[in-house]
Amino acid sequence: MTSISAAPADLRAAPASASRNLALDRTRTFLTLVVLVHHAVIPYTHFGHTDPTSWIGFDAVVLATDSFFMAMFFFLSGLFVWPSLRHKSPGSFVRDRLLRLGLPFAIAAVTVIPIAYYAIELRHHPTTGFAEFWWKTVTIGPWPSGPLWFVWVLLVFDLTASLLYRIAPNLPDPINRLSLRGFDRPAQFFLFLVVLTAIAYVPARLTLGSNHWFEWGPFSVQANRVLLYATYFFVGAGVGAANVDRGLLSAEGQLAKNPSGWAIATLVPYCALWGLIFIKREILGNPEHLPRWYDAIYGILFVIFSAAMMFLILAVFLRFRRGGWSVLDPMQKDAYGIFLVHYAFALWIQYWLFDLDLPAIIKVLIGYAVTLALSWALTAGLRRIPGATRVL
To answer: How many domains does the chain have?
Structure first.
């Protein structure tokens, strides 16, 4: 293992091992499937009960997924930023990000999103035509972005990273040195991440509330999580700046050797979050405005669980990293496209399932399987268009 006292110049000169890492590829694909699960179960939960049927187990799923998966996406995206900035000119990097993120966001915002939300519109106003709904969406609003908010926020982070790299190319080096220590002592990096994300998230939650969204046209993001996501992104940039295979994310490191320990680390805050939910509903009477002490404790448990879940998933994929075949491998090249287009399929399938007298679990299984199959087929077809693989 490289010495943790390596100079910044040594860190910059190290190879960008994150450029092709089988474990990370499979982790990203897995998270895409988690996104589809999240959107498949929401109508059948207690809080998002938009279907006649529901199941409390789906509330458990949403509590878990909502608490970590988007933050982890930003961490994984950040891993590749500094190596990319090091090997591309500023103009080339910006053009690549605009093509890869800006163009899909613009296209999907005027196609996928109106098509998706038209299913909800028909449930409330069955006589509304699609052309009327589309025009109202893009001119008057509301113009929700659905899961596409991740794409424009990531673009902003990438462009910010490009500017920071020109000003201070050594900026991630301290985090990278912590990552090198993480080879032997991942718990230290975990504590660092928890403290940093608590500083970024808890005050924002107390100030802005738990459900407020910033919205301007199709540009929306949960306001109290912007700094949290930025923290995950730039911590990821620090880990990925150099020595990826010799630091925290090494397949030979301690993180990969103890998935069971990280599983326990996720269960404790997760169970505590359910305890707080019980207090809110059964003791506090589910008030509109929660006490500040409640929001503070919830926020702290939230960031602990988020970090622990990320470490658990990384530990599992690093531990079972193999050069052979994985069930996730065939989907890897299409995962981004599946993320971009799946929401329209998800909402329309839920619309068609609404009136069927089926258990919630059956509806979710049908919705998930059909959404995945159609999203994958559409993405594979779109990628056959000349030049499309540069975007998807």
So the answer is: 1
